[in-house]
UniProtKB/TrEMBL annotation:
PANTHER family: RIBOSOMAL RNA SMALL SUBUNIT METHYLTRANSFERASE I (PTHR46111). The keyword S-adenosyl-L-methionine applies. This is Ribosomal RNA small subunit methyltransferase I. It is an enzyme of class 2 (transferase). It catalyses: cytidine(1402) in 16S rRNA + S-adenosyl-L-methionine = 2'-O-methylcytidine(1402) in 16S rRNA + S-adenosyl-L-homocysteine + H(+). HAMAP family: 16SrRNA_methyltr_I (MF_01877). InterPro entries: 4pyrrol_Mease, 4pyrrol_Methylase_sf, 4pyrrole_Mease_sub1, 4pyrrole_Mease_sub2, rRNA_ssu_MeTfrase_I. CDD domains: RsmI. The gene is rsmI.
């Protein structure tokens, strides 16, 4: 008889958020599969858990999942954890869970902390429906394609971002989505927890040159009934595009799809901006 795979959510900052059920599971399984054994050992030592661990980092999950699956099929109960939050949600574990399900192994969720839910619950934006993007692709063309795919959704958009990329990502979101309401949630459940709320343009200014520390969740308001950008938003988007070296004709054609403005009118505004010396 095969063992069971327990998908165990662990704290995203405050170690006291570990649930009693999660703690009991970590003590009773045969082995714990960790994103980083050294990181998880800090948690285990705090609660006196002596269970052995094996490493399952994101970069090697494909190579190492098979050995863990073999242990499950040989009858070992295994707990799956990541450095913080719920495994397999923009974190290692998705492949192992998929392979376990395919092999007929019982997979048991042990729910708990998740940064996306913490941010949504305290962010102040609509939570009835939301769309989780994970991390945007590093290639800007791919990131633009992903944002374009969801820009018409009325659901709140949620994404993770690294501190060093936050400023660039906020600029891209403002350019493509307009000046929507947004929230930057940082260091959730930790000592320096911070939720900054405001229009995207304000957040772009705040984080343009800021040194940001800690993990970041970004929430963006979904599309509202008013889909036409203001003239200020249009000018800002054109100026940003021209500054990045885009050709005016292709830029205004693309912006017309998102702004609610005719491409011809956008082109006229772009020419006016060039004439006044904003861009050569």
């Amino acid at each position: 008889m095969s063992g069971r795979l327990f998908v165990v959510a662990t704290p995203i900052g405050n170690l006291d958020d570990l649930s009693p059920r999660a703690l009991e599971t970590l003590r009773e399984v045969k082995v714990i599969a960790c994103e980083d054994t050294r990181h998880t050992r800090v948690l285990l030592d705090k609660f006196g858990v002596a269970t052995s661990t094996v490493s399952l980092p994101a970069f090697a999950e494909g190579q190492r999942a098979g050995a863990i699956l073999d242990r499950l099929l040989n009858g070992d109960d295994v707990a799956l954890v990541t450095d913080a939050g719920t495994p397999a949600i923009s974190d290692p574990g998705e492949k192992l869970v998929s392979e376990a399900v395919a092999a007929g192994v019982t997979v048991v969720p042990i729910p708990g902390p998740a940064a996306i839910i913490a941010a949504l619950s305290a962010g102040g934006l609509p939570t009835g429906r939301f769309h989780f993007l994970g991390f945007l692709p590093r290639q800007q063309s791919e990131a633009r394609a992903m944002i374009d795919e969801v820009r018409q959704l009325s659901a709140t958009l949620v994404l993770y971002e690294s501190p060093r990329r936050l400023g660039d990502t906020l600029r891209l979101l403002a350019e493509m989505l307009g000046n929507r309401r947004a929230v930057v949630a940082r260091e959730l459940t930790k000592l320096h927890e911070e939720l900054v709320r405001g229009p995207l343009d304000d957040l772009v200014s705040r984080y343009a040159d800021a040194e940001v520390l800690g993990e970041v969740v970004v929430l963006i308001e979904g599309r509202t009934g008013d889909t036409r950008w203001s003239e200020g938003e249009v000018k800002s988007a054109i100026e940003r595009g021209l500054a990045e070296g885009e050709r005016l004709k292709s830029l205004t054609t693309e912006l017309s799809k998102r702004s609610g403005w005719p491409a011809q009118e956008l082109y006229r505004i772009g020419l006016s901006l060039k004439t006044t010396g904003s861009h050569s």
